[in-house]
Amino acid sequence: xxxxxxxxxxxxxxxxxxxxxxxxxxxxxxxxxxxxxxxxxxxxxxxxxxxxxxxxxxxxxxxxxxxxxxxxxxxxxxxxxxxxxxxxxxxxxxxxxxxxxxxxxxxxxxxxxxxxxxxxxxxxxxxxxxxxxxxxxxxxxxxxxxxxxxxxxxxxxxxxxxxxxxxxxxxxxxxxxxxxxxxxxxxxxxxxxxxxxxxxxxxxxxxx
Length: 208
Known about the structure:
The protein is an alpha/beta fold. It has helices at 10-22, 37-49, 61-70, 84-91, 106-115, 138-143, 159-171, 189-198, and strands at residues 29-33, 53-58, 74-77, 96-101, 116-124, 147-150, 181-185, 203-207.
């Protein structure tokens, strides 16, 4: 049961944003920026829905490789890409249908709003610093009928209903959170914290 500990926050946020809020169709495209635990949960949820194009964006190649293994069809390392918006528009033939920011970084949020196409929806689940503001081109936003939403934990059902659904997806092999989690004995707490800090695991849980 210890492996299910992160379901109450990060995993339900990433997966719930896809399954409960955006609900992309199989023929649509989705961009996910920030491939930590939340972003990877979103990738897995999108794969479960059969979304045909899942684009993962991050600064770390190892995270992008894991995203591909879990379902991303395309990856972009934004550290070496000077025009991520154009790259996304090229991959999606004009703009993505959906985009999810898992970073809370204001320039990333602005980039995702710009990269969605007409009638596209961008969502922020990462927590930005207090008092920060985003800038958009209001005319383009209006004429292309774009939508921008904020999402907190993404639970349409109650948590008591949604977390069991995620557990069932895990049991069926559709939500392989064991790829992201590691359970440590309680006497290895310091090792668990060090591994989290280094990024070698996304979530850790101590038991015993």
